């Protein structure tokens, strides 16, 4: 997989996004919500990077910070050679067409008082000097592309079903021919029967237009279906990042393992025999993360060191990165054997 | 098909209508089913198929605009719809537990969790203040909330979503109900928390021998915990079978399509997901045709003119469809 | 969701938001009655004087305190002025005051509310300003302002226009705060909605986000404030008249008529009854219209 | 919560200072004059002398600072002395003095507070007593005839100015029926049953006029708030627990619905003082509202300044109370 | 018999703010205080001076007034005591004078002591007042409600600057009158009880007085005439038909009396054009047309005064053509032409004077339009009158713009306000004025040249029309030297006529006071020359 070494379209380095907490009489800053706490990863051109994790672990914040919808506290985000984290307002605006976003809630992400045509043509109005006719033509084109009936161009969002609304959102994101799209849980709010339509559409578009996705989701089965590589987040940090099959077949971080085992499988026979790893307790607050490894409060395999030292992010096998003391120890005990094999397998599969 | 123990709950021909400004919505159309003691029945179906409304119709918990227009609900042989107010209150309070869809809003934000649990105990178990508190703490412990004694004094917003859902379960279990109706209790939760709760329910069910109705649209969850599954579509139960049977031999085209759309974390990965095209049915009139006919790949003339009745296909399995997947031809009934 | 999809399935003709709102509005019985009454009153005060042509300021001494009759359908006052003519004349002023003052209040309130809600930096100062205005006791200040500027305005715009501007300005400037608060609250929530984020991700500049995305969506609370605003402005004007401020006494407004007529309750009840009735009816109908608008503009209700 | 309260209090100080300055400045610019109401037979020189004796010849800034000192330091000290009997300094402080009565403004206000508080307070209580059930039942039976009539009546109540209702009340109940006195006796003391009955009689009309106007508004809020809450999920939970309708509505829903309404009530109270001005005038309740009117009419600037400022303090205070009440009633805010 | 008739309820819709008449010039305060503190002599209901705390009125004839008219000597009756039991002495009178004339005290009644050089206590009961100039009418100090005697013992520490700080004293003065203050709430209510030490053991008949204030005139009238809650209501400036209707209820009746009040229109002889800036409304610029007597006479003729009275005053008003309508001997009859409403004559006069009717119904002459700005204070009767006048003048081609100004501003005399009646930045203005007591000397001096308000004298002055002729000034002077009543009357009439002829003032209505009393209340003698409550000691309840 690494041989082909496709171009890195997005490089995220040590991205941090802290939200201040103000309290007390003078509203002084008393702490920070470390929503995203030092992420580094790359996204290659044409691939789909899945980002999974529990609610509140910072997935959306990551997506937004990458697109500079939030001003990151620290770190750099280089998209197509431009560090968007450092751009000024004017330059940022020029860079916007490159990168777009699809949102979680198709209802909330569409202005209820604008027609479909208005919504889809808004980016065109902002960034091109097309006239009304040209815009309408483009809108029609886009509607065809996402499988919306052209006749619906002057209807309002509330007149559509969830899946159709999400298509509107996708059409809007595609309007300026972006290279990179952040999909922030684009299917979470949809019914199962509609999810598949949207996922298929996203796949088709990627194939046709050569898009690059950051696909945020907590639905591990969809991510497995869609992503090339998968990053698992826990409390503001990536705990594991690996090519898809490697991750699903051989999760290394205890959290990833627990997560995968917790996903119910729609097959009673499998379910009857499957071993679930049940985690105790709840996710700690990102305002007050535990000392050491973030996962140490719930980890079934917790060790003393975990409560003290923050595990490092280490690439044990090519492309499979983990931040876990346990993995480190195993690795040290049996250096690189099994993993080589796995890697080879993956290389073949991809 | 009802050869087990005498049913705990028996519902026949239930119809519920919403009277709205833009006309009536027939949310539940002739639903019949039963639940045996100690049985866990899973209910699946897409959003808007009438799962919640059906369950709320049972104990008359519908919002003002809704009306149960016909049907019979028997709880241990007693007719719920003809009950006196008082009797109905006792039934709701003592014998049936409800867990609702949204844990974030289902608890009253201005009362402590303790009060919301003890309220029920005191009214329906005749407990004193102290006894009720003790039992409440016990319940919280049971559903796995640490430091239960202290947390009784906390308000709902001080709990996370998963914990709130567990509180809801604690409330539902407070009076050792014979029947627990859980309406998508885990949909809003993360998988790891969902796993915790599923584990808890399996556990409790063994301990308390309750009948449980578990609504979800996650077939994975159903596969994991249910004994029997009902599939709802367009306000009707279109298929009903023991869990293994259903997954092994789905009969209704909707069920089949549903099973095919799902990707999975295990097993082989499909290249392309199957989809169900078309729109969910409109419920503005009582159905005169099969609700799924418009989206059904196998639909034929009869589907458009006659609403299918539920047919027993053996193995305690029944389905409402004119078409037989085994033969690939219409059934001849 | 299903309901909306259903709608789509049935109707293929494209519908506009305005038509939607209107059809919802027409379904509201109270609002329609309100609209009808309000239209009637507006017609009465605008077209009425061309039908009932007695000069409202004409003093007919022989006909003073006249009872209701064909020539004086609402009787006359103690100086022999025709009450109907005065009610119509007064209605013009009262309605104009209501609408204009409301206009000022709404524009100011929306502007400040949007600014405070959208720009975090302005939020603090603008909200403090709002608090300050809320904490100002209006009545004495009204008095003083009227006393201070009456003469200047009178010489600039003439006696009636001057005092009109003043009254309207004062009512407007002292009643924008509620709107500002509501709008700010809504904008704060809207700002976090994903469609605003979507617009940002497109690169839409702030002012266009406000114009295109924020404003249309705070329209419904604004409309409701507006209808309430008309009602309160009319009542405030009448209270000003009660305290001897406001318009000159030979310049009828409904409040003024009520105030002047109140002592004649026993003698010529028609003199109080009719202005009181139209005043109340106007406020009432405007309130009902507001109610209907709220329902009609509320997507939650409309969606169902 | 505590920090929040303190913070709000701290914020109130600059606001109040700004207001005090605005009020002082505007009133100072006012062209009205304390001698304006004296008979014309009093010659101008005498008027000049009277003005001088009122300290009107000092420059603006001095008068403002003097007033600040008197209002914020001297008067509070006096009040404390009066209540506790302690003595600060020689007790001979310059006080804010009314021009018309030549007596300390604060004493005048304190003298009048009882009747205002009684009438305004009672009207609020009655308004709540009327509005809450109407609002609750209207919402519970939305679109029923009760709701429709309730809506109509409250809108009518909302749209008739109080000066008009007051007058109609007097004509009907005092003049024609002779049930209640049209003039409030501020000297009346309740000593026995009969005097208590009289007190009730004389309070009924002003209180009702105010209460009706307030209730009209409150019941609308109450209804809206109840409607919001009646469709909330926790109501269904409560019903599912087997609780009776009465408990569900009057305990679970009402408690939640009261949260916004209580703050509306609190925010309303200062405006009621304003609205009471007209009512006080009509029924001669002669409370602080009437004092203000007299002050304005008589151009008694120190009185008006102090009163308006006290109104401002009340508004700020009740805003604060509203916010704190909100916090107390709503645990989500309490544990901020 | 004293204190046998229970409680007397009086309502003054303008509430008294203080009970020390020296610190407030308002009628309401004077009258409320008149229950408690008294002057040496009073005016009765027809304007005659009656001895009150003395046995007789000092005159030149009985030697009480010196021949050169510079000294007057009063002798207090025997056995008059304050309500606290101490005797009233001449020292108290001396103190009252000192109190009021202290420059730092801001005494409102200072003008009653004009030209007083000294007040001495000759002995315990004898007071001698010395004037710096001869006083043909020496009854200013200690006569009438305006200058009563206050107790030295009580007010000793309240002189000058300290006057306003004596709240207790100002709210409850000790007096010699029939009642004693028991409680006083400023601007609200005062209660009194019968004075146990009152000189007439049989009086007052009422044990207590409840003196309530607040509200408006109409409702005050209602409380006496319709609901019977009160026994006496003061100053009922209400439309006459309302009063008449209320009186029909039978609970009470109206009482009225005429004094010297005249509702009049002041005519501005100077140009109020704002374009003139600083010199606006000063003698530097005569008015473009109001100085023409034909115009003012036409304006006067075009007024139907009967209608004004009927609409606004009823029994409490009568048409008048004099600015000095009373007492009887001072009233001129030379101007009665104006009583007749005669628009034809008015039109004729204007035509003759060259004012031609324009197409818009307004007369013009040499480009000057007969268009007037007419201001008055805010008050419904005045606004009604204004409206009538506007309409009446329309008939003769005069265009009128009406303006009303809040009374406290209009009469406030604030330097910075352009709206005061003294600045008179209008063409016409209307208000009521009168004079205290029965002697018009000071009143008529109002229209002397030196009384013209102007920027130089900070607009202080009472000659609103800016009327100025040497002849008039000479008459003013002459009156100051004339003692005989008949001669004084002739002079006054002459001055009155002079003003009328010049058209400086257009008198409208001779206004009386109207009060209402309960049917059961006896002994009320309505008095416009002194306090209305002057004889309250004689009031009683009918059986
Ligand atoms: N504007 C903000 N101010 C303060 N805290 C914030 C803000 N936005 C997000 N957070 C916090 O940052 C953390 C991460 O939030 P984020 O929305 O990125 O989570 P997520 O993984 O997308 O969750 P979900 O699956 O629920 O969408 C959360 O704890 C959230 O409370
Ligand atoms: N208050 C209401 N007014 C009108 N129609 C309603 C109302 N509540 C529900 N419905 C309609 O009743 C039908 C069934 O709704 P129900 O809530 O039972 O669906 P569900 O199967 O529980 O869906 P979900 O999985 O989304 O919870 C839907 O078509 C819905 O539109
Ligand atoms: Mg998210
Ligand atoms: Mg549901």
Automatic annotation (TrEMBL), chain A:
This is Dipeptide ABC transporter ATP-binding protein. PROSITE patterns: ABC_TRANSPORTER_1 (PS00211), ABC_TRANSPORTER_2 (PS50893). Its main location: membrane. The keyword Magnesium does not apply. It is found in: Cell inner membrane. It is a peripheral membrane protein. GO terms for molecular function: ATP binding; ATP hydrolysis activity. Signal peptide: none annotated. GO terms for biological process: peptide transport; transmembrane transport. One of its GO terms (cellular component) is plasma membrane. Pfam families: ABC_tran, oligo_HPY. Keywords: ATP-binding, Nucleotide-binding, Transport. The keyword Transport applies.
UniProtKB/TrEMBL annotation, chain B:
One of its GO terms (molecular function) is ATP binding. Residues 9-259 form the ABC transporter domain. It is a peripheral membrane protein. The keyword Ion transport does not apply. GO terms for cellular component: plasma membrane. Keywords: ATP-binding, Cell membrane, Membrane, Nucleotide-binding, Transport. The keyword Cell membrane applies. It is found in: Cell inner membrane. GO terms for biological process: peptide transport; transmembrane transport. Belongs to the ABC transporter superfamily. This is ABC transporter ATP-binding protein.
UniProtKB/TrEMBL annotation, chain C:
GO terms for biological process: transmembrane transport. It comes from the Bacteria. It is a multi-pass membrane protein. Gene3D superfamilies: MetI-like. Its main location: membrane. It holds the Pfam family OppC_N. PROSITE patterns: ABC_TM1. InterPro entries: BP-dependent_transpt_permease, MetI-like, MetI-like_sf, OppC_N. Residues 91-290 form the ABC transmembrane type-1 domain. Keywords: Cell membrane, Membrane, Transmembrane, Transmembrane helix, Transport. PANTHER family: ABC TRANSPORTER, OLIGOPEPTIDE TRANSPORT SYSTEM PERMEASE PROTEIN APPC. This is ABC transporter permease. It comes from Pontivivens ytuae.
From TrEMBL, chain D:
One of its GO terms (cellular component) is plasma membrane. InterPro entries: BPD_transp_1_N, MetI-like, MetI-like_sf. It is a multi-pass membrane protein. This is ABC transporter permease. Its main location: membrane. The chain crosses the membrane at residues 9-30, 117-140, 152-176, 196-216, 261-283, 303-329. GO terms for biological process: transmembrane transport. It is found in: Cell membrane. Belongs to the binding-protein-dependent transport system permease family. Keywords: Cell membrane, Membrane, Transmembrane, Transmembrane helix, Transport. Residues 113-322 form the ABC transmembrane type-1 domain. PANTHER family: INNER MEMBRANE ABC TRANSPORTER, OPPB IN A BINDING PROTEIN-DEPENDENT TRANSPORT SYSTEM. It comes from the Bacteria.
